[in-house]
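Figure 6 in text form: structure in, sequence out.
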């Protein structure tokens, strides 16, 4: 922060990355729409690559501001914490929408609601529909639950080690967390491959794949978040008294854990009772 400033806030320099990233996201979304309509997936992958590259360059600038610019003082850190909390709150609302869709049809399948004629015709007033073979909750879903719970423990252990300036254990347990996230993603992908229903086969499959699929996307994003922290840790970043980047990654990972517990409890187990 320049000594000429008469305030403790960080006024960021002009940056191209917000505009570039938003345009890349638009390109990726456009490509996704084309892929869903069987018009090819090339544009989607170009957009995804552009989003990845723009994010890396934007993240690089933020790291430089923190590590070399000295801009992230105590006042700025408070603002960043509020920003991360609001972001997670928006994510809570995002998943609340999918749970709302799930419980709306689960609790009101149409049998006692004559006005829901379309729903009655689609599932005969029964949820989940009788022709859907559900995924066994105490197979891969339970295993994935244990994996994510374990990862919540390892990331907390890594945080504890960092706060005690134990960089070796910080890196070891952070690496274990990343590996557990990758293993979870692998099992989730396998579950999708062996499932007996597709996303376009009714109300339950669509809500199932949208809710668990978006959660899986968040696990992948969280794993990348933690991987960046691991690379930064190897480079000597983060101090016991200042490690916002890792702290936010840990918050995000715990959020992902909690969402999965609700998914397992209701989308997998409750519907199978």
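Output sequence:
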């Amino acid at each position: 922060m320049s000594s000429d400033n008469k305030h403790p806030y960080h006024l960021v320099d002009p940056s191209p990355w917000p505009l570039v990233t938003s345009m890349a996201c638009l390109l990726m979304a456009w490509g996704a729409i084309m892929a869903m309509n069987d018009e090819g997936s090339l544009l989607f992958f170009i957009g995804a690559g552009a989003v990845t590259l723009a994010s890396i360059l934007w993240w690089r600038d933020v790291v430089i501001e923190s590590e070399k610019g000295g801009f992230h003082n105590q006042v700025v850190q408070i603002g960043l914490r509020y920003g991360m909390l609001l972001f997670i709150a928006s994510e809570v609302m995002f998943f609340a929408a999918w749970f709302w869709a799930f419980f709306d049809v689960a609790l009101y399948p149409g049998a006692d609601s004559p006005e829901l004629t379309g729903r009655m015709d689609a599932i005969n007033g029964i949820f989940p529909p009788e022709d859907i073979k559900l995924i066994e909750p105490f197979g891969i879903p339970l295993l994935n639950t244990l994996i994510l719970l374990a990862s919540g423990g390892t990331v907390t252990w890594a945080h504890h080690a960092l706060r005690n300036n134990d960089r070796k254990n910080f890196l070891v347990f952070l690496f274990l967390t990343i590996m557990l996230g990758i293993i979870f993603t692998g099992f989730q992908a396998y579950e999708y491959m062996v499932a007996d229903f597709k996303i376009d086969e009714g109300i339950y499959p669509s809500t199932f794949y949208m809710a668990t699929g978006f959660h899986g996307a968040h696990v992948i994003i969280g794993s990348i978040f933690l991987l960046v922290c691991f690379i930064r840790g190897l480079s000597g970043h983060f101090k016991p008294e200042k490690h916002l980047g890792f702290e936010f990654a840990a918050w995000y990972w715990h959020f992902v854990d909690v969402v999965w517990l609700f998914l397992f409890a209701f989308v997998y187990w409750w519907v199978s009772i």
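Caption detail: The longest helix spans residues 74-107.
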